[in-house]
Amino acid sequence: MNNLVLITSVIDTPNKPLSYTPIRSIFTKEERFEQTKKTIQSVKTYIPNSIIFLVEYSILSKEEEDYFKKHVDYFINIYDNSNDNIKNDLHSEFKSRCEGTMTTIALNYIKNNNIQFDMFYKISGRYWLSNKFDYNKFNEEISVIHLIENDKNNAFTCVYKLTKQHLLLWLYFLENTAPLLYNIHGFESIFAIFITSIKTVKYIDKVGVSGYVSICGTYIDM
What we know:
Helices cover 34% and strands 20% of the residues. It is of the alpha/beta class. It has one domain (3-221): Spore Coat Polysaccharide Biosynthesis Protein SpsA, Chain A, CATH 3.90.550. The strands form three sheets. Strands 3-2-1-4-7 form a five-stranded mixed beta sheet, with helices on both faces. Strands 5-9-10 form a three-stranded antiparallel beta sheet. The relative contact order is 0.18.
């Protein structure tokens, strides 16, 4: 089974506040680059037959760009071809708009380039799969989701798995419904709204992912 793994990444964060905090990231570009390297390596370690697709939005050095191109199967840097609308979305004070825009661009790239896969995974850059990640929990023809504190209105977006059918529905939702919600809800709440519209979803208590929250450096182990 071929597993397409999308990694969304912004290693060079803009010096602009978010709606809920004046600090967007306490980590330097260099630190975020090293953290994203760890993301890539963890996917290769814990998800067999992985096809890694990295979507970045940063001005990259040649070293950074060369590393990404060498270590993933598909790589695009949205920054290279972004217009003002995309830039405004990805620098928005509303984090849900940033995440939603980047995810929409990535999913359209998969669709338009006819990338072949069996199952789809998403992991946020700078977070990494840990030795607590149990691939057997995901290795079914079903979407796999973690609810934060078992709250049906708060679905974890750092790591999730969708079937091909549900992935197309997620893209449709992002293009047609989510933009109406970006300034109202966080992306976890928006994802939860989408999840309620699909069936045959498996919920898991433990994901097996670790990393540092960008705005404060808090370590998480979910």
